[in-house]
Amino acid sequence: MGSTYTWSNKREGYEMVYERLNRCVCNYQWRDIFTGATVSHLEFWKSDHCPIMLDSTPYRALFTRTSLGHRRRFHFEECWARSEGYVNIVRKSGVNEGESANMQDLVSSIQFCTSQLREWNEVNRKGFCKEILRKHKELQQATKEIHTGSWRSASLIERELYALLENEEIYWRQRLRATWLKRGDKNSRSFHSCALSRRSRNTIKGIYDSEGK
């Protein structure tokens, strides 16, 4: 699945070279166990080699995680500060009126602002994730067509995707409360694992009485 080629020198015109240098191999015993396994050539990303993804359980998306349905506390997202939508909501709510508003009006403004930000974030976050997926697909398509065009289109999409992942990094950094996060570790598996582990520890799954029931 994906592009036929796994390597390119990313040059223009007649100097452009593309080859299939990287492969995934297995023996018959492994293939008999994982009969539905798939191999995908992902889009070129900051490298002249494309990543190769081996998926031994391609149908795992059929199993979804159920939600406990509890209302989560309101948290300010650092990445909001980069969005015009956030600034407009704060201005309309009147939170920044300062001394001109009494305490009751200020509390009402904060509550209104919180409510609006919840709704805005829910819509914006879904759109943000879809935009990242869309850019990944565009980059993957541009990668497939490297032998018919140039790398300029792919480079532009790559820069746009990088900007989106910058915000994604801020999103996960805030959830981890980590100071050891360094540049270059964009959206890695370890960050997701830590965040999910913390959420699991903080979730109350049940209450037991003195008899253990």
Please report the distance between the alpha carbons of the first and last residues.
Answer: 51 Å
The major beta sheet can be summarized as: 2 strands, antiparallel
Q: What number of structural domains do the residues give?
A: 2
Per DSSP, the total helix count is 5
> Per the principal axes of the C-alpha atoms, what is the gross shape?
flat
Low-confidence stretches: 61-69, 178-184
Q: Based on DSSP secondary structure assignment, what is the total number of beta strands? A: 4
Q: What is the chain-wise order of helices and strands?
A: EEHEEHHHH
Helix content: 40-55%
Overall pLDDT score: 72
* Helix-strand makeup class: mainly alpha
Rg calc: 23 Å
Strand order of the largest sheet: 1-2
Strand fraction: 5-15%
InterPro entries: Endo/exonu/phosph_ase_sf
Concise structural overview:
This protein is mainly α. Helix content is 46%, strand content 6%. InterPro entries: Endo/exonu/phosph_ase_sf.
Give a structural overview.
The chain has helices at residues 28-33, 84-93, 103-144, 151-176, 189-202; strands spanning 7-8, 18-19, 38-41, 52-55. It has 213 residues and is mainly alpha-helical. The strands form two sheets. A two-stranded antiparallel ribbon has the order 1-2. A two-stranded antiparallel sheet has the order 3-4. The model is unreliable at 61-69 and 178-184 (pLDDT under 50).
